[in-house]
UniProtKB/TrEMBL annotation:
Pfam families: DHH, DHHA1
Gene3D superfamilies the record matches: 3.10.310.30, inorganic pyrophosphatase (n-terminal core)
A GO term for molecular function: nucleic acid binding
Species assigned in the record: Candidatus Wirthbacteria bacterium CG2_30_54_11
SUPFAM superfamilies associated with the record: DHH phosphoesterases
Domain spans labelled DHHA1: 238-308
Protein name: Uncharacterized protein
PANTHER family: BIFUNCTIONAL OLIGORIBONUCLEASE AND PAP PHOSPHATASE NRNA
Domain DDH: 19-160
Length: 325
């Protein structure tokens, strides 16, 4: 059992009346599933709960029970407690901090996360860097506050586990994760929907984008680096967004000998978004940190101004900067 401040968590929940849950930008199944499960539990305890995210969930997450309750805006004066979920850095990941800095710095805040780069912000950090996902942490929290997990909550939490373990393929798939997954399945979690919507469903525009991206694929076998740069024009031509590139990185990273895979996508605000996956001990978070980003040891991301593109690993000379020994 993890040594987390469950009593303090329970006390802060008990003293609150209206709670704001905040997910990170470009939400994934972990932040969404964990948020929705906790939202349902707190609502049953009689709390008023609003769950917000700066970016709307993509279509493939629409199967999550309660997804219709995710909102994009909120009024700070209505809330006496904030809970951030899966946010390593409050100032960067929520998207709301700049506009509501005073609210975030003066309101009691519970920080639930599993990123090693989390800077332990908030009144009550509940951060477990070795947890496979926030969904795993959330199951422990729900157990401690004696919140029953129903079928809908189980589906949300199992989706969180599935996503952050790569459908139980990543090395963070521990025996504890598998035991929790078995519990959630016993509670009625719909794993068929989870596997289909998270890993199998592919639209024609998405496949068209992947095809264009793979034509641009570059591989440096000597350094074990593979990278793709997707332009804004590529996204426009296929009617897609950078979110559709999520599954591509796993496909490219399967190339034998590749230890680091980087997917770069141009954004309309003169920025480039980078996603990094690594293996064989290479620290993805370290390399993402070179460009102001962060994340986990094997999966990380960053955003950088487009004019810094020559410093990114999209040309042979630039690969020297991220060379791996």
């Amino acid at each position: 059992m993890w040594e987390l401040p469950y009593r303090d968590f329970t006390a802060m929940i008990g003293n609150s009346h209206s709670i704001l849950q905040v997910s990170h930008v470009n939400p994934d199944a972990d932040t969404l599933g964990s948020s929705l499960a906790l939202r349902q539990a707190l609502t049953r305890f009689g709390k008023q709960v609003t769950t917000v995210c700066m970016d709307p969930p993509v279509e493939n997450y629409r199967f999550l029970p309660g997804i219709q309750f995710i909102e994009k805006t909120f009024s700070p004066r209505l809330y006496d407690l904030i809970i951030t979920i899966d946010c390593a850095d409050l100032t960067k990941m929520t998207g709301f901090y700049k506009e509501y800095e005073a609210f975030f710095t003066t309101t009691p805040l519970i920080n639930i996360d599993h990123h090693p780069s989390n800077n332990l912000f908030g009144t009550l950090p509940m951060v477990v860097p070795h947890a496979a996902s926030v969904g795993e942490i959330m199951v422990h929290i729900l157990d401690e506050i004696k919140a029953p997990i129903d079928q809908d909550m189980a589906t949300c939490l199992l989706a969180a586990l599935y996503f952050d373990t790569g459908s139980f393929q990543h090395s963070n798939t521990t025996s504890d994760v598998m035991r929790i997954a078995a519990r959630l399945k016993k509670y009625g979690a719909n794993h068929q929907n989870i596997t289909y919507y998270l890993f199998q469903k592919k639209s024609f525009p998405l496949l068209a984008l992947w095809g264009m991206a793979l034509q641009k694929l570059k591989v440096d076998q000597t350094r074990g680096i593979a990278w793709v740069f997707v332009s804004e024009e590529d996204l426009d031509r296929t009617g897609t967004g950078s979110k559709e590139l999520e599954g591509l990185i796993a496909l490219v990273h399967g190339i034998p000998g590749v230890k680091m895979t980087i997917i770069l996508s141009e954004r309309g605000n003169a920025m480039v978004k980078g996603s990094i996956r690594t293996s064989n001990g290479t620290d993805a978070a370290y390399y993402a940190g070179l460009f102001g980003g962060g994340g986990h040891h094997k999966a990380a991301g960053f955003s950088a101004p487009l004019e810094k593109q020559p410093f990114l690993p999209i040309t042979e000379p630039a690969a020297e900067r991220l060379s791996i020994t």
